[in-house]
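Notebook, student rotation project (T.W.).
Task set for the rotation: take a protein with a known small-molecule partner, predict the structure of the complex, and write up what can be learned from the model alone. Partner molecule chosen: zinc ion. Sequence and SMILES entered below by T.W., checked by me.
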Amino acid sequence: MKKVNYEDINIQKIAVHPLYQMMKVYLYFVDGVLVDTGPSVQRRNIIRAFRSWDVRQVAITHCHEDHVGMLRWVANNFPANIYSHTTAVPALSKQVKIPWYQGLFSSHQFESKVIPYPDSIRTSKFEFLPIETPGHSSDHVCLLEPNRGWLFSGDFYITPYPKVFLKGESIASYIDSLQKLSHYNFNTVLCAHEGVVPNGKEMMKRKLDYLQSTRHKVIQLHQKGYTDKEIIKYMFPEKVKLELMSFGSFSRLNFIRSCYQETGT
Ligand SMILES: [Zn+2]
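Predicted structure of the complex:
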């Protein structure tokens, strides 16, 4: 676990799982705003970090466990507004609610509410604009601080050259969202798994170019009658570490299928 700062942003770097030290999660805290809450498996370490932060507002980028795992603890320990994509509000509201029987014995002080993102989140020094960016998940939101050029990107960025997708990931949505982001001014991407990416705008542009050209190639192969297996062998012959580590939850097959299924070819 490591604490660092980038400009006015406090950053907590932690392993996504105690057994997977290679993969990291970065938690960001800036002027009272906490971006995502981290995985519950790191509960003890994360609580230690949170105790030194005065959380007033919580911005959820999307509902995967490593981003909302500690949400209930945060909701019960800080009088904070919690913002999420509209579609995620019912599930997250359920998650933060303490069952009445637990409430009798727990020492929690608050039950903060989950509400849909407003047009902007303001603090004394900054302003954060939520931008809907489906792709990694349908409920994904990035946060832009326009005056400082920061983009808190949750899991939207991670790498400009992905070869594996989760089942729900959509290359068509990624491309639309990347085109949308290209109209905003930002320099620094603050990624939940890669940390600070100083040339973030350029890297997002690379990701857009890569996804467009890769989708085009995959569709051509598919239309020529190549099977998924043959396309994988041709496009991504090397084994991918994340595919092995996630026991296939992230896979090249999901990526390939997303390329041609969504265009109806
Ligand atoms: Zn995710």
